[in-house]
Amino acid sequence: MRLLQQRVIIWKAEHDAILSGLTNDISDLKIQCSQIRESHLEIDRSVKFVNTCYEEIKNKFDEIQKLRKENDDRTVQLEQYIQDLQLQSRPATIELRNVPQKTKETADDLVAVVSAIGKVVDIAIEPSNLRDLYRLPGISGTPRPIVAEFISVPKRNEFLSNVRRYNKERPITDKLNTASIGVPGDKKPIYVDEHLPPSKKKLFYDARTFAKANKFSCWNSHGRILLRRDSNDLNEKPIQIKSAKCILALTKKQ
Fold first, then answer.
1. How many other C-beta atoms lie within 10 A of the C-beta of residue 162?
2. Looking at the record's lineage, which domain of life comes first (predicted)?
3. For residues 55 and 202, what is the distance between their CA atoms, to the nearest angstrom?
4. Which of 54-68, 83-97, 125-139, 211-225 reaches the highest mean pLDDT?
5. Which of 172, 195, 218 corresponds to the end of one domain?
6. Distance between CA atoms of residues 191 and 180, nearest Å
7. Do 184 and 240 share a structural domain?
8. Which long-range contacts (CB under 8 A, 24 or more apart) does 83-87 make?
């Protein structure tokens, strides 16, 4: 009997020790859970703070993008306004490209070039019809463009019209060229167009490059750069190229 009582006492002591240990473990777990919960709350607060900061940054970014677009649009408008002023300041001017340059070339030589072209396209050009003639700066090794300013817009328009009609009536190999005006050496094409301001020259060049690659016709009229697909449909309306974005949009459609 005494032995049984001793065993019960020992078992109870062991059981109490186990319960005490479990109680301590549970207390530790509660503390850890509380710490984890607090940590989660801190993380949640941090996430909310980051989200708030992100929204603020996103709103500021969107506002900056909007202002940038408005500034870009305004810049395009100002550039167009400047181009219009430049065109209005020289409405009677044309540009001749790819005409070989003489050594010690004089103004009389340039007058002779314009007169020779006029003779080929059936319009008489006298020195008195021209207000100014000069060559623009150009790329080394290539003929510098000639700028010719007529005394009147009608005379300039008649000259351009005759050149375009002459070229339209002939195959590519027989369009206006150096041999046509008696320049010795290899036959090279001569290009006659309205004189565009520098800001539009690059755009006109890009438009011509696109036209050659995609079977379009390209020309300029009264300062407008125009494209039209080469086809037999005479009713197809030309496309006005106002900026590089227009060429990019057409390129994506090809």
1. 17
2. Eukaryota
3. 42
4. 125-139
5. 195
6. 12
7. no
8. 83/197, 83/199, 83/200, 83/223, 84/223, 86/197, 86/199, 87/196, 87/197, 87/222, 87/223
Residue 187 sits in the same domain as residue 130: yes
pLDDT tens digits, residue range 204-251? 889 999 998 988 888 888 788 899 887 666 677 889 988 888 888 888
246 lies in the same domain as 232? yes
Total count of domains within the chain:
2
Considering the domain architecture, whether residues 180 and 237 belong to the same structural domain is answered as no
SS3 209: helix
* CA gap 40, 33 in Å, rounded: 10
pLDDT band at 82 (very low <50, low <70, confident <90, very high): low
208 plus 190 within the same structural domain: no
Last residue of a domain, one of 178, 195, 212: 195
3-state DSSP assignment of residue 93: strand
Q: Is 171 inside any structural domain?
A: yes
Cα distance between residue 204 and residue 212, in whole Å: 12
* Domain limits for position 208: 196-254
- Distance of alpha carbon 186 from its chain centroid, rounded? 36
What average pLDDT does the structure give for the chain? Answer: 84
- Tell me what pLDDT residue 140 has: 78
Q: In the numeric block, which tokens belong to residue 180?
A: 């046509």
Percent of the chain residues topping a pLDDT of 90: 34
Residue 63, domain member (yes or no): no
* pLDDT at residue 139 is higher than 70: yes
Nearest to 143 by CA among 174, 189, 112: 189
Q: Of 142 and 25, which is predicted with more confidence?
A: 142
